[in-house]
Amino acid sequence: MTGYDTATDVVAVEAVEVSRTYRGDGVDVLALRGVSMRVHAGEYVAIVGPSGSGKSTLMHLLGCLDRPTTGRLLMGGRDTASMSDGELARLRNRTVGFVFQSFQLLSRTSALDNVALPLVYRGVGRAERHGRAEAALHAVGLGHRIGHRPSQLSGGEQQRVAIARALVAEPSVLLADEPTGNLDTRNGAEVMRLLDQLNVERDVAVILVTHEPDIAAHARRVLSVRDGLIERDEANASPVRPRRVEPVGTEFGHDGPGEEELR
Amino acid sequence: MRLAESFRVAFAALRSNRLRSALTMVGVVIGVAAVIILVAIGSGAKQEVESQIEGLGSNLILVVPGRVQFGSAPTASRLQLSDATLLGRVVGDQRRVTVSVASGEVVRMGSSQAFANVVGTNENLPNVFNRPLDRGRYLSAADVDTRRRVAVLGASVAGRLFGDIDPIGRQFSIAGVRFRVVGVYDGVGSAFGINRDEEVHIPVTAQQRLLGIQTVDGFGVKAATTSAINDLQGRLVSALEDRYPGEEFSAVTQTQILGTVGRFLGMLTFVLAAIAAISLLVGGVGVSNIMLVSVRERTAEIGLRKALGARQRDVLLQFLIEAVLLTTFGGLTGIAIGAAASWAIGTYSPVPTVIAWWSPVLAAGVSAAVGVFFGVAPARRAGRLDPVVALRAE
Fold first, then answer.
1. What is the ipTM of this complex?
2. Domain total for chain B?
3. Closest chain A residue to B13, measured at CA
4. What tens digit of pLDDT does each residue of B94-136 get?
5. A246-260 per-position pLDDT tens digit
6. Which domain holds residue A216?
7. Would you call B304 and A89 a contact, using CB atoms and an 8 Å cutoff?
8. Mutation test of the interface with chain A: which of B306, B308, B317, B391, choosing the one with the most A Cβ atoms within 10 A?
9. Within this chain, do residues B173 and B299 fall inside the same structural domain, yes or no?
10. What is the CB neighbour count within 10 angstroms for residue A131?
């Protein structure tokens, strides 16, 4: 169906003929018109399309932030349609990680507490939470920025904190919505390198939502969305990798480079 | 999310917006402080009056003509001095019956003058009422029998007429008639606008002559024991009603007076507290308003928390706890300010204040309840926010 041969047959998330209608002032907007797709565990997929194409709506559905108007959305084989608010929240907490264009960090909160936030909603105790959050910050090369607040961090660092927050929850799917949209080229490259690494080393399915072709080129599969439908679903035989891959710690959990080393 | 965590988050949110939190609390602070102060004044007045009434003496029965109702005018009396003997027989002890004929008169001593409540009474007064002497002696049976023009002065009358001079043995005039001071009472304070320190006691016979009357206003009777009061009340009234057929008499006890006065002052306290509670309500509306603003301001944060796994109830609880913390801190501050102000009023002004144990407890409970009541609507709104819409807000 996807035309792409995955390393594993486990389906992380699957949409079956999903549509989503927004009720405006007397006008119904059909943002998705029956989309079927499947993302396997460990896949690296880009969803591309112009603004208004429905790619954000699709991302919200895949991230369980929203429910389809019709059709079915399966997370790890379970249909989300019948789930309660609490069950959906649990899925978002344990199965999905988010990276947003505008970072979405709590401004008056330290990097450490920002990263630990998903664990708060999981009921993890304070000490363990901080230990895991610290490890995650080390993994994105921000071990030296633990106590800093977002306003004391550069845009690139903020997005890396957001990535640490996504990976601390050990999700099976990571949704990145224009993750480099607010970053300059160098910081953008660093963020993409982290996402690539996350996909390879942790076997996390990464779903990139972007309108930038060179960002989408990182993925091994590209879905083009237009007018609420998937227009094309193509494999990318030669995904881009950043030029400098080597300076990073060989696996997550080790301290990555400080900012100075990246310059 | 654990409850302790919710508290931590709410506390951090309040702290990060210190000025706004403080201003929001002001409404609750003022409301609670007002309740505490006004209840303290009301309770103070009640306690003062009650202690005055209790200070009159114990096991007291007042026998008067007509029906006794709070605020109603006294009935014209046909009681005679000789009725004291009748009541003495009912009580079984003549010494436990005293008599009263009161009138307001101008008293003079040289150039000093005062308006005093002149009470004609007899030698049994100290047996019935608790009225300690400062100096001199009480009125005697001989004073009453021979209609002697002698007087025992209340503390403030003595002060006003004689100043620092010892009044014992000195002359003064009541309504132009000369009297000699034989005693001065200790100061006992005022109750209900009747200042007993402004009384002048003279023999009842002399008072009747002064006023040109044969009647007396009423009698004071002391029961032997508390358990005898009820029975005695009925027998005193029926003895008088036998002597004066067709007329009504009343025998009221301190407990009954206390009951009436207590109900009245209790109501007064309640009304004062209710007025103050309105400002607490206004404070609650302020909290509600600020919480709504806060929810709107932090829409993106709410969206993020939901995206990271917060359930509706997690978000609802976070905002509800914030509101309750606001009003509880406000309430505690208000209690502290109200208690301090009540103490200051009681200490530095003539208004007595008593902080009843229940008023801070109630105020703390009510302010927390105000937080829940006025916090629920904003918190529900926060909990129900659609994460997609909320995340889009910047």
1. 0.86
2. 2
3. A108
4. 999 999 999 999 999 988 889 999 999 999 999 999 889 999 9
5. 444 434 444 444 444
6. 41-64+83-262
7. no
8. B308
9. no
10. 14
